[in-house]
Amino acid sequence: MLHSTLFYISAIVMLASALAVVLSRNAVYSAILLVLTFFSLAIMYLLLEAYFLAVLEVLVYAGAIMVLFLFVIMLLNTTREEAMPKLIQLQKAASLFLVVIFIFGILLLIVGGTTELHQAEVISTVGSARALGTALFTDYLLPFEAASLLLLVALIGTVYLAKRKM
Amino acid sequence: MVVPLEHVIILSGILFAIGVLGVLFRRNALVIFMSIEIMLNAVNLALVGFSRYYNSVDGQVFVFLVMTLAAAEVAVGLAIIVALFRNKQTVNVDEINLMKG
Question: Is the pTM of this model over 0.90?
Fold first, then answer.
C-alpha cells in the first residue's frame, strides 16, 4: 500500500535526521538536518490527513524558526566543538543509558497497554483549514486570544533582551 | 486507515527520546534548544495521530497552540542565548554555571 510505505519511509528519514541533529558536531549541519526532520514530519501530517498543520509545519518551523536558528548560529560563529574532558565522557555515557531506559519504558507502556487503540475506518473530516478555523474561533476562542497575547509578550521580551546593554 | 495508531505513538516516543538524548548529550546551548524543538514536535505528532484516529479536531487545535508556543519560545530563548554570548563569549552550558551577571 502506497500510503503506509510512504509513511514508514518518512518515519525512517525523520528518525535518522533527528539522530543526526543530536550527534552532529557542527551546529549548522544540525540546523539543516532539523529542516529535513520537519519536512518528513510534514509528510507524516499529510498522510494522517492533517493538511493545514502540514502546511503550518513547513511555514512556521522549516521557514521561520529555522531561519532564526541559522541567523543566531552564524551570528555567534561557534560552530567548532571543543575537546571533551573525562567527566563529560562519563556524563554522555550516563545520558545514553538513561535514554535507552526511557525508550524501553515508552515502548513497554505502549505495547503492554491493555486498551485497544484501533478505531473503525472513517474518513477524516477534521484536517482542513476550515474545520480547524471553525474550532479555533468558536470552542477555542479564549486559548486563541491567549496565544496572541503570548506572542505579543514574546515580541516585547525579545526586543528588550536584544537591546539591553549587559 | 493508513497505519495503526500504535506505530504513530511509538514513533513519537522514539522521537521524544532522541530529543531527551540531545538535551542530556550535548553541551552547545543551540543544539540543546534544537533538541527541545524535536521534543515539541514529537508531542505534536502524537496529538495529530490521536486526532486522526478519534476523528476529532481538538488534538489539532492543541498542535496549533503548541506551534505558537514554540515560535514564542524560540524567539525569547535565542535572544537569551545571544545575551549570554555577549556576556560570556561562549554557548557551552558547562561554562555557564554562575548566576552572577
Answer: no
